[in-house]
Amino acid sequence: MGLLQRFLTKGGLLVGDGAMGTMLQASGLEPGEAPEGLNLIRPRAVREVHQAYADAWADVLTTNTFGANRFRLSLHDLEEGVPEVNRAAAGIAREAALGAGREILVAGGMGPTGALLEPIGDLPFEQAREAFAEQCRALAEGGVDFLLIETMSDLEEVRAAVEACHRNCDLPVLCTMTFDMHGRTMMGTAPEEARKTAERLGVDAFGANCGNGPFEIEAIMQEMADSSRIPLIVQPNAGRPRLADGQINYGVTPERMAEHALRCFETGVRYIGGCCGTTPEHVRAAGEALRRAWDRRPTRLAPSEGIN
To answer: What is the CATH number of the domain that holds 285?
Structure first.
């Protein structure tokens, strides 16, 4: 049984990777430049980020496709390149995974459209779903192992993305939403409501990412863990971004990220990675702590009988 199947049957641990965008900024991504465009014009820069996470012993590499739907790409006049951008991203991540000499999964990352759906906004549900369908088809063609819908705030947009994935490919679908410091999404959705809706939609795992930092997100994960029937995911920022000397800095150190990872592990979360501001050093520290905790778990329980 592989890494993904063990996780989905609640019998395995996955150490996720960390930020892509902030890592690319550190390596020269220009302000206003589309990170996803680098999949076509500077694939080496993207590959180097994936390689750094593979070297840090991440179990998952997430494609550089957070904004690779036609609505986001249209901001850079790249909307006609959705298939090429996503297929290229999947290939770059797969190349890094294969070069690691061990099993590493490739997640097809899918972020929000950046528009508000009707009736609050102007984007029709069907158009959002078709945009996600176009993206997920390309990611599947590129060879990802599963689809990761992330940083969502609106349950209707979650529904559009999940339906698109289920209708257009046979891959597992995982999903995370982002919650603010008051424990709600931008649209006012509470964690338990979000989890229940995700389960009804048939996602294979659910959780939270981004937000205000790792420690604020712990209470959210505890609320979800109390009654979740599916595996849980957490991928927080490395704290809130702060501008100092012209540079954006995140305040959570790798050591503090490892402490957070362990607390989430204790609540039952089994897919733990990072979002904005996290680096390979954060992933390495968290992964080492998590694997030690995994090895110390009660041996009287079969893996499939363990905590969520």
So the answer is: 3.20.20.330
Q: Which domain holds residue 246?
A: 3-305
Q: Which residues of the chain have pLDDT under 50?
A: 300-308
Q: According to DSSP H, which parts of the chain are helical?
A: 3-8, 21-26, 38-41, 43-55, 70-73, 82-98, 125-142, 155-168, 191-201, 214-225, 254-267, 280-295
pTM, 2 dp: 0.94
* Alpha carbon 89 to chain centroid, angstroms: 15
* Cα dist from 26 to 23, 111, 247, 277, 295, whole Å: 5, 21, 10, 10, 35
pLDDT recorded at residue 299: 58
Average of per-residue pLDDT values in the chain: 94
User: How many distinct structural domains can be found in the chain?
Assistant: 1
The predicted structure's pLDDT at residue 307: 35
Residue 183 region, left (φ>0) first, then alpha (ψ -120 to 50), else beta?
Answer: left
